[in-house]
Write a structure and sequence with these properties.
The chain has 394 residues and is an alpha+beta fold. It has helices at residues 7-23, 26-33, 40-53, 71-83, 91-104, 107-119, 234-242, 252-268, 280-308, 316-339, 360-367, 377-388; strands at residues 124-127, 143-146, 151-162, 169-175, 186-192, 198-203, 212-223, 227-228, 270-271, 274-275. Helix 5 packs across helix 7 and helix 8 packs parallel to helix 10. The longest helix is centred in the last third of the chain and has 29 residues, at 280-308. The structure holds flavin-adenine dinucleotide. Flavin-adenine dinucleotide binds at residues 125-129, 134-135, 160-162, 369, 372-373, 376, 378-379, 382.
Length: 394
């Protein structure tokens, strides 16, 4: 298996790196340099810069406006964006519902939705989870009833809807046949957030950001043309969506950036006349983390080499998810240890937290979620037990 980069790929990496430096708006670059948190307007500003360059959707085929990059170039582009600390783009349109519409959407749906996802004119969110349907997603209850006049009428609730308060559209799993067996009566429906009866109520996370909303549907009337895939066939569509764009699941770029940030802070933190980066105990901790990180990076390259040969990512993506999320958490744990008592100030109070340590504590808090979202790590272990180790289920 070939795991080194070709001269062309190395040149592409340099081109991407140089372009990112020159294209970042000044405020975005300032925050990126200290790995700061971006607000929604900065995320969308960066979205538009990438859109103008033609790099907003590295994995989209050319016919839908993608740059037509191969798997390795896509990986390089995404990794360089993460390494540069640029804003994280919302995945819900670009990485989820966009590719899904290419696969299951009607021509009219593709024409209506794809260009606005690319340009950032319309922002999406994901309505899967409900108060009693997370890991056991097929228990979902949001009801979509056919009114016999060309509409579904939606009643119920979604929860954990990331950034629903900024979204123009939500893709929802709804129950269209309450009498069918659990996974069989579900449909995949696109809902305009401005529909009367749809309300997003944001709530704060311990990371200090209003990252989620609870989303309520009260007699919300949605045209039936917004159904994607077959009626009652939403479970298959939902699973296909989760399979899209899994090469970033290991969050290698994010961890790499965090390790760099830890080293930078350690080099600037003095104890007994020396920087913490010179302290043998602290150096050993960083080295241990880097060894684990390097192993993850190599495992990710193996998955990439396989994708380059046209193999779809299989259950091994669960291994990358588990290790990637754990290592990212360990990076921030070490960052908190490094900060000492400064880490008690969660919300970047000026004058309390030194400038170079801003956002470590809030990132630490938010990163607790990496082992939960995208399928919890326990569920990933079930996948590995069943599909890789062939262990019998109890
Ligand atoms: C940061 C973040 C962002 C999110 N964004 C969205 C979003 O935009 N849209 C959306 O729809 N959802 C979103 N979610 C929801 C997320 O998908 C769910 O939190 C996740 O699927 C787990 O469901 P749950 O919270 O109901 O926990 P539960 O499913 O109730 O699980 C509770 C615990 O039990 C364990 N467990 C459950 N079943 C099993 C089992 N069979 N075997 C072993 N252990 C098990 C779990 O691993 C977990 O530790 C987000 C969550 C987070 C944290």
């Amino acid at each position: 298996m070939e795991m080194s980069f070709t001269p062309e790929q190395i040149a592409f990496r340099q081109e991407v790196r140089a372009w990112i430096r020159s294209a970042m708006p000044p405020r975005v670059r300032e925050k990126a340099d200290v790995d700061g948190a971006f607000d929604q307007s900065e995320v969308m500003e960066w979205h538009k810069v990438l859109y103008r360059k033609g790099w907003i959707a590295p994995h989209w085929p050319k016919e839908y406006g993608g740059p037509g990059l191969d798997a390795t170039s896509r990986f390089i582009l995404v990794e360089e964006l993460e390494l540069a600390g640029t804003p994280h783009l919302s995945p819900f349109g670009l990485a989820m519902v966009g590719p899904l519409l290419m696969q299951y959407g009607t021509d009219a749906q593709k024409k209506r939705f794809l260009p606005k996802i690319l340009s950032g004119e319309e922002v999406w969110c994901q309505g899967y989870s409900e108060p009693n349907a997370g890991s056991d997603l097929a228990s979902l209850k949001l009801r979509a009833e056919d009114d016999g006049k060309g509409h579904f009428v939606l009643n119920g609730q979604k929860t954990w809807t990331t950034y629903a308060q900024y979204a123009d559209w939500i893709f929802c799993l709804c129950r269209t046949d309450p009498n069918a067996r659990k996974q069989e009566g579900i449909s995949f429906v696109l809902v305009d957030m401005k529909t009367p009866g749809v309300t997003a109520k944001p709530f704060l996370t311990t990371g200090g950001t209003p990252a989620f909303s609870e989303t309520f549907f009260e007699n919300a009337v949605v045209p039936k043309e917004n159904l994607v895939g077959p009626l009652h066939g939403g479970w298959t569509v939902a699973k296909a969506l989760l399979g899209h764009e899994r090469t970033t699941i290991a969050a290698v770029g994010q961890s790499s950036r965090q390790i760099r940030r830890i080293k930078r802070i350690a080099a600037q933190t003095m104890a007994n006349g020396k920087s913490l980066l010179e302290d043998p105990g602290f150096r050993a901790k960083i080295a241990r983390l880097e060894v684990r990180f390097r192993a993850l990076q190599i495992a990710n390259y193996r998955a990439l080499a396989s994708a380059q040969l046209g193999h779809a990512p299989g259950p091994e993506a669960s291994i990358l998810k588990i290790r990637g999320s754990e290592i990212l958490q360990q990076c921030l744990e070490l960052g908190m240890e490094l900060m000492g008592h400064d880490a008690l100030a969660w919300f970047n109070e000026p004058g309390v937290v030194p400038a170079n340590e801003q956002w470590v504590a809030s990132s630490f808090n938010y990163t607790r979620a990496t082992t939960i979202y995208g399928g919890t790590n326990e569920i990933q272990k079930n996948v590995i037990a069943k599909l890789i180790l062939s262990l019998p289920s109890r």
